[in-house]
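Propose amino acids for all 255 sites.
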């Protein structure tokens, strides 16, 4: 696994927190360069390594912002080998039906953000394979959710956005397989990140009902972000060289 990352450059969007940050930490000692994009103004501190570049205040739903960031990244690293999109939001206060504004924002970040980042990366791949022959392999990992495969109460907009990005993964996997790109979706179950902690705090899922929810999971616990990051790292690596177009659940056996 280690050698398969040598001299490789990976972009992680939504990498200032949670699963994305854990992915950056997982890749730190493996990659030549990691470019980390996030809408937050405040990059994580305590990174001594000089192979990590932070791009704060970038909203993945906005084409202009994402295009400019890709230009800056390509100026530093002309060859990009991997893209991970962990940027995402989930409404933490449940109302049924959800307001239009919730639907619009969740779709903008989770779905359009995946589209915007993904298509910048796809254009890069087309530009390096002008003759149609792959010179090196590339991998895109989209972070979906258990909600890419199932419906969840009070989360209709989120469920819709996560089903939609599974469609992108499947279509792009077909379109770009012969350009050396693999596209897969990781579908985490509930994972102990700031996003999930906010949901727990706001949804009334406390004490007894929290215990009941955990009891539905065969492994009887939530995931740690590092357990999702290690699957993302595997899918980025050459160890996954024959895997594309797949949705991989990492959910403690929930389904
Ligand atoms: N935590 C879970 O239980 C869980 C389960 C399944 C799927 N997921 C998915 O995993 C991904 C990461 O979630 P997390 O739990 O680590 O959450 P998190 O809130 O800890 O991290 C999400 C990151 O995305 C960034 N972000 C949000 N909106 C953005 C935007 N418009 N542009 C750029 N960056 C933006 C945030 O600033 C944050 O750094 C999300 O796509 C989420 O839907 C999480």
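Proposal:
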């Amino acid at each position: 696994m280690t050698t398969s990352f040598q001299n490789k450059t990976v972009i992680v969007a939504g990498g200032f927190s949670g699963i994305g940050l854990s992915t950056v930490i997982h890749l730190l000692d493996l990659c030549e360069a990691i470019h980390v994009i996030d809408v937050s103004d405040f990059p994580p501190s305590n990174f001594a390594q000089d192979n990590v570049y932070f791009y704060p205040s970038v909203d993945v739903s906005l084409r202009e912002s994402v295009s400019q960031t890709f230009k800056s990244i390509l100026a530093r690293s002309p060859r990009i080998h991997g893209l991970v999109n962990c940027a995402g939001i989930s409404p933490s206060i449940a109302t049924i039906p959800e307001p239009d504004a919730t639907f619009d924002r969740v779709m903008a970040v989770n779905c359009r953000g995946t589209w915007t980042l993904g298509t910048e990366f796809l254009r890069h791949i087309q530009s390096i394979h002008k003759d149609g022959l792959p010179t090196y392999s590339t991998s895109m990992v989209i972070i979906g959710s258990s909600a890419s495969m199932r419906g969840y109460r009070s989360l209709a907009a989120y469920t819709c956005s996560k089903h939609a990005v599974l469609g992108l993964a499947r279509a792009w996997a077909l379109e770009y397989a012969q350009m050396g790109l693999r596209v897969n979706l990781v579908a985490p179950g509930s994972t102990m990140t700031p996003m999930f902690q906010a949901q727990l705090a706001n949804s009334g899922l406390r004490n007894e009902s929290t215990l009941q929810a955990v009891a539905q999971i065969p492994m009887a616990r939530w995931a740690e972000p590092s357990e999702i990051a290690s699957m993302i790292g595997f899918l980025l690596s050459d160890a996954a060289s024959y895997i594309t177009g797949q949705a991989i659940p990492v959910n403690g056996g929930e389904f």
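The chain has a mean pLDDT of 93. Helices lie at 18-27, 63-76, 100-128, 156-176, 194-203, 207-215, 225-236.
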